[in-house]
Amino acid sequence: MMENRLRKLRKDAGLTQVRLAEEARISRSVIARFETGRTELSTKNLMKIAGALGCSMEAIVNGGKADGAAS
Predict the structure, then answer these.
(1) Is the CA virtual torsion 45, 25, 49, 8 positive or negative?
(2) CATH number for 45
(3) Which residue range forms the structural domain that includes residue 33?
(4) Which pLDDT tens digit goes with each residue over 10-48?
(5) 16 within some domain
(6) E strand residue ranges, the chain
(7) Domain presence at residue 71
(8) 3-class secondary structure, 55
């Protein structure tokens, strides 16, 4: 599931929800609500999170390449 991929990518990057939120310039609650399955990410927030994690949106959505490289 996408929320599990985001949590794994975040933890693999050594980031807390707070730090990821700061890096992505979004609210920590957005990340928390998504990781617990209570909401979906907008494309805008997905782009911000992927940028903060240094990965592609594909890595979060479908488990594609995490380095942002084209498949």
Answers:
(1) negative
(2) 1.10.260.40
(3) 2-61
(4) 999 999 999 999 999 999 999 999 999 899 999 999 999
(5) yes
(6) none
(7) no
(8) coil
